[in-house]
């Protein structure tokens, strides 16, 4: 017997049964389990409906993070169990690669002869990830193959960033994202909670942040809300407005912790501070009207006499929090203490992300307070590098505040770099660790080397390169696709899958407009590359969704998926082709690996996302006429095509479909419920000689045969 088909299970336990029931009793979200109390010592369950896990030795509940369970396996001969064990796991190094995060290591053994599955984790997270792998191996009939797995992550930091500042996303949508992150073993949720366009978290003691800063409407004085942006309309009824209460945030923290995901909150400053500045100005006006001048000035983030003229990259002329007034640091201190308090008892705060990016040049140059501070520090307020120097001062002050709370610090790359991309002196920041998120790598600008410069300077670097890991860019080079293209013309799932974080400049293929660019041209001829001398400081990678063009939950999920699945693959696993030095050979091996991955997505993972209600992007079909035959293909094999002549009635494309003239084609989701946008194609009017009907050749049919062979070989 080379596979297991479980029918029934039995467990002895005094308090309850640890089982994979969903709240509604369905098979949806099968990786998410609940604890149910019961007097009955035996439960008989069918694996295709509900899955039973037995924790044999004081294993922390790996799915909900509850208190340690003490469950015993029944001695009944007909008992079929899945053992969860917390114990030693050794994962052999490959090619000198050392695996981080031992608590995330696991082994999985499926033994059909004993009708037994054993998952052993070095820590609770390892057990949890073993469960995710088991669920991924299970087929539609509830069967899993005989297998022995020893697994460990490539990086200790495997993250997903979500911007809710530009457009707000409801708590329920965030929780669903966490569900899918957990399924694919991502363990860091970078929560971008503030930006120019909105402040999204209630902060006790500063109600104006949400009373004013979380709302967008038409108010030229910014007294009741901040001015409408990004098409949010004249009132506060759209996605431009919204915030999380303290209880909402704690719910998100608890939900993330149960799934072994760390929440890293970001409060972007001193740039991108429009919402906070306007909220604290409203507070100032309100308290001043009551005669409370000291209270009004306590948390003010701007200086009334500052006449500096500047324009940020998003066209704001008043979004730079003033680093030269003490009330700014009173605000930061209050904020940090409030966030630390929110995390207590659920998921203690360990990393504070202060943003720090895109401070406009020209800010603060006509600030009286900054002129006085510059004189005290021996700086020239008229210097072209004064903004970077004052930002350096701000970062040191924020570092001191966070270090006093034993927090690690995080910031975007430019928040940690001074004039001409020189990193701030690391020893001046008291935090044990400081994370730099390397994002702005437009190759021809020479900024790609920032990741290595930060790592060499002693910062822990999160690879966040916009050319490959910014999911706010289109998924194909088509003007009808949603997204920006300031960093690259498009980023599809294959591009994310092919990213090589260990050799950054091996990823150079095109400039931002899509024209060919080689590593040799960039590094050897233009001299725009740096060598990495402290490889150990590259500690992770992360995908990002900025939400300027995202107004609904479906749009959010469509921009993230399926690209996030490829991100998870690269963050957890280093492919063998990444170490191939010959580019031609590497590209060949990478393409072969992509075919396997694309088949896995098309035939399995997209269906899993459908069951979870995740509206991933359905990619339109490609079509061409070759030798008087219409050929149709899709990136992900296994998805069906449909055609229409009127955009109203649609039929599935079959091998014998007779198509001619002007037709519209679309791709169906794996479950057939959703569809891509249609594409128009002109099919041949006459069939090929000797054929009685128009022949449609679909490349995906050919790939099905290849896939079947591959799956059979893998199954053996």
From TrEMBL:
Coiled-coil region list: none
Keyword Ribosomal protein listed: no
TM ranges: 44-64, 697-715
Domain Glycoside hydrolase family 20 catalytic: 155-574
Reaction catalysed by this enzyme: Hydrolysis of terminal non-reducing N-acetyl-D-hexosamine residues in N-acetyl-beta-D-hexosaminides
Highest taxon listed in the record's lineage: Eukaryota
Residue ranges occupied by any Beta-hexosaminidase bacterial type N-terminal domain in the UniProt entry: 99-152
Sequence segments annotated as region (Disordered): 671-691
Alphabetic keyword roster: Glycosidase, Hydrolase, Membrane, Transmembrane, Transmembrane helix
Boundaries of every Chitobiase C-terminal domain copy: 605-677
Entry's Gene Ontology molecular function annotations: beta-N-acetylhexosaminidase activity
Biological process, per Gene Ontology: carbohydrate metabolic process; glycosaminoglycan metabolic process
Any one cellular-component term (Gene Ontology): membrane
Enzyme Commission number: 3.2.1.52
Pfam families in alphabetical order: CHB_HEX_C (PF03174), Glyco_hydro_20 (PF00728), Glyco_hydro_20b (PF02838)
Active site (catalytic residues): 358 (proton donor)
PANTHER family: BETA-HEXOSAMINIDASE (PTHR22600), BETA-N-ACETYLHEXOSAMINIDASE (PTHR22600:SF57)
Entry similarity comment: Belongs to the glycosyl hydrolase 20 family.
Protein name: beta-N-acetylhexosaminidase
Upper taxonomic lineage: Eukaryota, Metazoa, Cnidaria, Anthozoa, Hexacorallia
